[in-house]
Structure formats: structure tokens, C-alpha cells
Design goal:
Jelly Rolls, 2 domains, 9-stranded antiparallel beta sheet, 6-stranded antiparallel beta sheet, globular, binds 2-acetamido-2-deoxy-beta-D-glucopyranose, GH43_C2, ConA-like_dom_sf, Glyco_hydro_43
Length: about 575
């Protein structure tokens, strides 16, 4: 009797586990940290893997591709843009929000296509770039981009194949569609298909074909708090398009939700036929003031019945949906997006994949385990500091800065520095960096004090990109005598309430640290970086002087600790 109950239960449980409609819980964002304008595709031929890409602006390498089998564990698979000659324009000294904007990723007949645009504000002539690969786990396999004609002279290209094999590109603003040739980049005169529901900035289009309709999903309202995703459909790709009467499909506008700015979405189907949407969202509600991580990628389940319209769940921190079974067996050498960094820069290793430069780097400034300095990253000083300025020539001068995305609300970052400056104002340190005009720095700087050069700890904030914000004063502390000749550990802690605390310690006695200052994440929210998100990393500069003393960074640690998933509610990572 007892045994029969057990076995009946066993059978019931087994069939339940295998039922694809069983829901699991997960938390948003699924791609935490600066990951806006997500676009994703499910590729059965690549062992049932989902691939997503997000916008990278000036970060290099750019156009990242993430891979997952369960929609919650995401691995950094590759960067479509990983060689400066693919997009030399990235070396322009323009505004801080220029660069690679929203992309679309799709798979067709053995090839991955990633279409995106490069933007410069000096001249409004967005360059459309179509990258392809047959191996999304290998940077080198990504092609040089085909430069696609841009008759609409706008942004946010989509790529879509019709059943007859024709390739179309939808594009902002007020949505246009052209037929394109993926080999030559030729584009036909575009036809205008939909202006959205009437909000400003109809953009970020994606086309789908389902049940005999062409569906056009777009973003509207601007990427701030009025953002939304809306949809229209037509039996003919040329239109007329009929808007969904219950638009928007996704939004957080006029709500006091924690997940604000929801919009710019993409739709895709998993291997069991369930529909999903990804969108960008800013964890900042309801005030939308403090959001150092900028616009992140969220995931919601969607129901989309035959002949009907997609209905998406509300974006929240705690979600439930018919996720594929948990599976971290993903190809490639990149890290999962939410794991700690424990980087020791061993000899003959390369710079880890999650580390980024601000624009393509001057590679001569960086060396892993240079002769006589094993297990370090050597950064030679750039003449310009992190703020750089108008005379800065990115290709020639370079910026001695390398960083990773802040991916958690609460984290600890530290790195050990060995630095023996000789010239005045030579500096090496750590930075919480949104843009060149908004960064919070703790450096060791060789200050001329009373006629003597003294290596000094300096906490200093650049906030010219965010006027009207009160910033804490600069603080300088002479390096204690007992620390001489030792490596110094510089640390950043992000704590509850979106504060950063920066401190320094001798590595021989890391417990006895000097608290150098605290600053609100408000300083690295919006302003000159309204579309980007915060990085945390290390720098070396001669501050315009004659110094050339390199700094040796070792024991790079970044530990994500907790995510805020609703106002004041944190979950451990
Ligand atoms: C798919 O790719 C193969 C091999 O490259 C090619 O022969 C075939 O024509 C392609 N099919 C379509 C529908 O494009
Ligand atoms: C979109 O707006 C433009 C400018 O107002 C107008 O010329 C065009 O006809 C509109 N297109 C559609 C498809 O509504
Ligand atoms: C949002 O829309 C409202 C109503 O149209 C408008 O008053 C407000 O300025 C908009 N806000 C932003 C940030 O665009
Ligand atoms: C699973 O989640 C989906 C999407 O939220 C929902 O529509 C469905 O009712 C849920 N199913 C169960 C069995 O809870
Ligand atoms: C690093 O590579 C060089 C040349 O490939 C080799 O001679 C050397 O032994 C390697 N060192 C280590 C520590 O692996
Ligand atoms: C510099 O000299 C002034 C005047 O002698 C003295 O008060 C001050 O403490 C000195 N500063 C440092 C950092 O030694
Ligand atoms: C800063 O404050 C001044 C005076 O209140 C105002 O005119 C200006 O628009 C503000 N700037 C920003 C970027 O908010
Ligand atoms: C630091 O090293 C230098 C040269 O190696 C030495 O002259 C000096 O005495 C050392 N200072 C301390 C405090 O150990
Ligand atoms: C960067 O360098 C410029 C010019 O050398 C200087 O005016 C500015 O204060 C420096 N900024 C920081 C944050 O050190
Ligand atoms: C840099 O070197 C030049 C030539 O030796 C000298 O004239 C100049 O004063 C130096 N600049 C600084 C900031 O030390």
C-alpha cells in the first residue's frame, strides 16, 4: 500500500517535471548592468541556445553576444565588434553617448546576423553595419561589417526574411522598411509603414511573421519614463498596419514601479513554443533619479495565441514563467554575467573577456605579466586623465583605463597597485566611471607638496557631466610611512542606498584601511551618460605631465553581493 502510493506519486511528479508548462521563478534583470536595447534569437541548431545582444556605445570590444539555454544563466559568448578596423569611427573624440546603438540579432540557415548602427552627433549620418558569423562563440569568426545603405538616414535597424527569401530592414524613426541585399549592403527606397500610437520617438522596430500577419513591434515615448513597446500588424509587409487596440504591450509609464523606462523590446519563441519578450528597463522607480547601472535587460513571459496579439506579463523583479530547465552547459570561454571576477593576470594569459575599454584601446598601454612583473596588469599612463577633454585624440593618446560593468546593486571591487611614481602628478587608481565627465576616483598621485614630491592618496570626483549635483569634496591623505614599498589595495564598495565607499589599505595589513570618501550613485546616473551604465575599473595617467611610470595592478576582485529587485528589497546574488 505504502509502496504503491510512493510509486504513484513518483510517476505524477515525473510527468509534472517534464510538462513544459511548469513555471519556475526567476529575477529580473536577466542581463544585469548596462545592457540596453536587447535583441534575442532562439537557435535550435546550436543545441537549443538563446542568443542576445545589447548596445555598447563607446565600450570596446562592442556588440556583445550572450548565450543561454535556460534564459536565466547567461554567458558572454563573443563580441561581434572586436577589431578596431571593423568600425574605425569609434576612435572619434565625440560625445559620450556616441558609438554603437541598438542592434538586432537573428539566425538564418547556418549564419548569425547582427545589424546595428554607429552614431556620431557631429553629423547625423548613422552608419548601418551588418556583422555575420557562423560561430557566435568566437570573436575572430565575426566578419567585417557590410555597410548597409541608409536611405532613411536613421537608427535601430532590424533584419527580417520573408517566406519568399527576400530580406527586409525595418528602421526608425517613424518606421520605414527597405529591402536589402546582405552581401552588397544595397537598400531600396524605404516605405513608411507606421508612426506608432502617437508618442514621440517611434523607434527600435522588429518585424515578425505569424499566422499570415506581419507584426511590427516598436519602442515609443523616448527611452525615459514614458517609454513603451507597441505593436501593429498587416497582411502585406507594405501595409497598411493596424495598431493593437490594447497598446502598449509593455510599459511602466505612469506607474510607481521600481522597474521604470520599460520598452524597446524583442519577441522570441523557445523550443517548447512559449513566447518571451526582452526589453530594457531602469531600476530606479518610482523617482527615476538614481540608476548607476543604466538600462538593463529584463525578460517576461508572453502569451500569443493564433491570430491574436502578444500579451506580456508586467516587468517586475520577481517573475514566474515556463522557463526551460536549468542548464549551464554552454560553449565558449566567456564568464557567466553574474559571477565574481578573480583575475590574477597570469603569464601568457590575455585580458579577460568581461573587461572593457572606453573606445578601442591604444594597446601599447596595456600588458599582462610584462617581463619582471608576473601576475600583474601593467597600465602605462595616458597623458590624458579619465576626463580627457577637447584636445584628446583617442587613437594617438589612448586612455589608460580598463573596467568591467557594474552588474549588481551591492558589490565589492578591489585591486592591488604597485606604483612608484617619479614625475609630478603621475597617478594610478580605481574609478567608478559612467563617462569621461562623470567618474568617482581614488588614486595614488605624486603631488608636489611644499616643494617635495609625495605619493598621496586622493579621492576626487569629476561631475561636470551632471551639473547641479552636490559632490563630496576632494580628500588627500599622505600615504602612511609604514606602507612605503608595499602594494596598496584600492577598494570600492557599493552599499544599500546606492552609495559607493572608496578606501585604501596596505596589502600587508588590509584590515586597517583608510576610508577615503563616499559618494552617491546619483553622480553616475544620467547626465552626460543618459544611455549608458557604470563601469568599475583601474586607470593610470600622467595628468598631462611628463611622467611615464607604469602602474602594476594585481589581484583584481569584483564580487557581486546583492540585487535590488524592488525599492529597498535586496536578494543575494
Ligand atoms: C542555405 O545555405 C546553404 C549553404 O550555404 C545554401 O546552399 C542554401 O542555398 C541556403 N539556403 C537558403 C534558403 O538560403
Ligand atoms: C507618419 O507621419 C508622417 C509625418 O507626419 C506622415 O507623412 C506619414 O504619412 C505617416 N505615415 C503613416 C504610415 O502613418
Ligand atoms: C512624458 O509624457 C508626458 C505627457 O505627454 C509629458 O508631459 C512628459 O514631459 C513626458 N516625460 C518625458 C520624460 O518625456
Ligand atoms: C505560467 O506562467 C505563465 C506566464 O506568466 C502564465 O500565463 C501561466 O498561467 C502559468 N502557468 C501556471 C501553471 O501557473
Ligand atoms: C609563455 O609563452 C612563452 C612563449 O610562447 C613561453 O616560452 C613561456 O614558457 C610561457 N610562460 C609560461 C609561464 O607559460
Ligand atoms: C606644507 O607646509 C605648511 C607650512 O609649512 C605646513 O603647514 C603643511 O603642513 C605642509 N604640508 C604638508 C603636506 O606637509
Ligand atoms: C542646473 O540648474 C540651473 C539653475 O537652476 C538650471 O538653469 C539648469 O537647467 C540646471 N541644469 C541641469 C542640467 O539640470
Ligand atoms: C623602500 O625601498 C627603497 C629602495 O628599495 C629603500 O631605500 C627604502 O628604505 C625602503 N623604504 C622602506 C620604508 O622600507
Ligand atoms: C584631468 O586633467 C586636466 C588637465 O590636465 C585637469 O584640469 C583636471 O583637473 C584633471 N581631472 C582629474 C579628475 O584629475
Ligand atoms: C616636461 O618636460 C619639458 C622638457 O623637459 C619641460 O619643459 C616641462 O616643464 C615638463 N613639464 C612638466 C609638467 O614637468
Amino acid at each position: 500500500m505504502f509502496l504503491r502510493v510512493i510509486s504513484t506519486l513518483g510517476v505524477a511528479l515525473t510527468s509534472w517535471v517534464h510538462c513544459s508548462s511548469m513555471n519556475r521563478t526567476y529575477t529580473n534583470p536577466v542581463l544585469p548592468g548596462w545592457n540596453s536595447d536587447p535583441s534575442c534569437a532562439f537557435v535550435q541548431e546550436w543545441d537549443n541556445t538563446f542568443f542576445c545582444t545589447t548596445s555598447s556605445f563607446l565600450a570596446f570590444p562592442g556588440a556583445p553576444v550572450f548565450a543561454s539555454k535556460d534564459l536565466t544563466n547567461w554567458k558572454l559568448a563573443s563580441y561581434a565588434l572586436n577589431r578596431v578596423d571593423q568600425v574605425p569611427e569609434l576612435l572619434n573624440n565625440g560625445q559620450q553617448s556616441e558609438g554603437i546603438w541598438a542592434s538586432t540579432i537573428r539566425y538564418r540557415n547556418g549564419t548569425f546576423y547582427l545589424i546595428t548602427s554607429y552614431i556620431s552627433f557631429a553629423v547625423w549620418e548613422p552608419k548601418l553595419l551588418l556583422f555575420t558569423t557562423t560561430d557566435p562563440f568566437d570573436n575572430n569568426a565575426w566578419s567585417d561589417p557590410v555597410r548597409v545603405e541608409n536611405p532613411a538616414n536613421d537608427i535601430d535597424p532590424d533584419i527580417f526574411w520573408d517566406d519568399d527569401g527576400k530580406t527586409y530592414m525595418a528602421i526608425a524613426a517613424g518606421i520605414y522598411i527597405s529591402e536589402i541585399d546582405v552581401t552588397t549592403g544595397a537598400a531600396t527606397e524605404p516605405f513608411r509603414v507606421w508612426n506608432g500610437t502617437g508618442d514621440r520617438n517611434p523607434e527600435g522596430p522588429h518585424l515578425y511573421k505569424k499566422d499570415g500577419y506581419y507584426y511590427l513591434l516598436i519602442g515609443e515615448g523616448g527611452t525615459e519614463t514614458n517609454h513603451s513597446a507597441t505593436i501593429a500588424r498587416s497582411r502585406d509587409i507594405h501595409g497598411p498596419y493596424e495598431g493593437y487596440t490594447k497598446n502598449p504591450v509593455l510599459t511602466a509609464k505612469n506607474t510607481d514601479r521600481y522597474f521604470q523606462t520599460v520598452g524597446h523590446a524583442d519577441l522570441f519563441q523557445d523550443g517548447d513554443g512559449n513566447w518571451w519578450a526582452v526589453a530594457l528597463s531602469t531600476r530606479s522607480g518610482p523617482d527615476w533619479e538614481v540608476y548607476p547601472m543604466g538600462r538593463e535587460t529584463v525578460l517576461v513571459p508572453v502569451t500569443w495565441e493564433e491570430g491574436g496579439w502578444p500579451v506580456a506579463d508586467v516587468v517586475r523583479g520577481r517573475m514566474s514563467g515556463p522557463l526551460p530547465p536549468q542548464n549551464k552547459d554552454i560553449k565558449g570561454g566567456g564568464p557567466f554575467v553574474d559571477v565574481p571576477d578573480m583575475i590574477d593576470f597570469p603569464p601568457n594569459s590575455s585580458i579577460p573577456r568581461q573587461l572593457l575599454f572606453w573606445r578601442p584601446p591604444k594597446t601599447s598601454l596595456f600588458a599582462v605579466s610584462s617581463p619582471g612583473h608576473p601576475n600583474t596588469l601593467c597600465i602605462s599612463p595616458s597623458r590624458f586623465n579619465l576626463t580627457a577633454g577637447d584636445n584628446f585624440q583617442p587613437a594617438q593618446d589612448g586612455l589608460g583605463f580598463i573596467a568591467r560593468k557594474q552588474t549588481a546593486s551591492i558589490f565589492e571591487y578591489s585591486v592591488d597597485v604597485s606604483f612608484k611614481p617619479s614625475a609630478v602628478d603621475e597617478e594610478a587608481g580605481v574609478s567608478v566611471f559612467l563617462t569621461q565627465l562623470q567618474h568617482i576616483d581614488l588614486g595614488i598621485i605624486n603631488l608636489a607638496t611644499n616643494g617635495t614630491l609625495t605619493p598621496t592618496l586622493r579621492f576626487r570626483i569629476e561631475a561636470s557631466g551632471k551639473p547641479n549635483v552636490t559632490v563630496p569634496d576632494m580628500k588627500v591623505v599622505p600615504i602612511p610611512d609604514s606602507w612605503q614599498n608595499q602594494t596598496i589595495r584600492l577598494s570600492v564598495k557599493a552599499t544599500e542606498g546606492s552609495m559607493y565607499t572608496l578606501s585604501a589599505a596596505s596589502t600587508s595589513n588590509p584590515q586597517e584601511s583608510i576610508n577615503m570618501g563616499s559618494a552617491s550613485a546619483l553622480i553616475v546616473s544620467g547626465g552626460s551618460g543618459p544611455f549608458t551604465g557604470t563601469l568599475v575599473g583601474a586607470y593610470a595617467t600622467s595628468n598631462g605631465g611628463n611622467g611615464s611610470t607604469p602602474a602594476y595592478f594585481s589581484r583584481w576582485r569584483y564580487t557581486p553581493l546583492a540585487q535590488e529587485i524592488s525599492e529597498g528589497e535586496y536578494v543575494r546574488v
